[in-house]
Amino acid sequence: MNSKYYCGVLLILLSALSPVWAQVGIFKDPANFSNDVSTFMAGPKTEVATNAGTGVVSVYGSASDAVKTKIFDITQKLYQKKKFKAPQFVDFYAALYAAGSKKNISQTDLDSLLYVTQKMVEKYDSKQITAFFTTIKNLFDKDALFVSTFNSLNVKGGFYKFRFLEAAPMPSENIDDLLKEEEKQDEELSELDDNAWETVEESTPQEPVVDESALNVGYIAPAQPAIEGAVIVFQNIDLSFQTQYETTELKGTSGSLRLKDNILLVKEGK
After folding, report:
1. What is the pTM of this model?
2. Cα separation, 168 vs 14, whole angstroms
3. How far apart are CA 56 and CA 41, in angstroms?
């Protein structure tokens, strides 16, 4: 084979590997964040990815030091996860841009959002994190908690905060007390077994006493899911459930959206 053939093959290999080489070592220095984002988000070669990268760079440039630190830290940790590529960053970066440009949220609230995001990156799996990014993008960009081709759940008015609530500790029990209770129950069961075959004196049957109040207990609501972990806490908001055929509203309600599984718990409203 002649040298021209080898040169052609080499050029093809270099062009294929150049995007990979360009990303080696990125997101290591906060001072290079803007350039690294531009390089990284250019990878998918889509307008959506490019715009998301441009948007987060603008947010980063005007952010407080605390917010900048969190944005860089989250980006770096996500980049180190093998499942997170540029397309998975699109919703996250787009959400941050919409939060600043459309909602004009304060640096304090943005810092709270990023704190919750850090906790999710630390404790939740990739699927939950990706779903969270989609949720906050819809919230800031479309005023919606859920959007699909067929229906949506929109929110307006009121206010909301991002929080990370640690699970309530299990009640502590005295192990000695528990053991004594178990021993007592064992003794009672043993006595029942010993007396099981004793002769019982005949007596006149008694009419059973029925507690009328026990017959009309009504509906007993099931236990509500625990509000813990990453949540959005809402107060005095209006919810609009929209389908292709109708819209139903719940006004003046409050509650929480549990972000690990998008379970929404609300109370009151009309």
Report:
1. 0.73
2. 55
3. 11
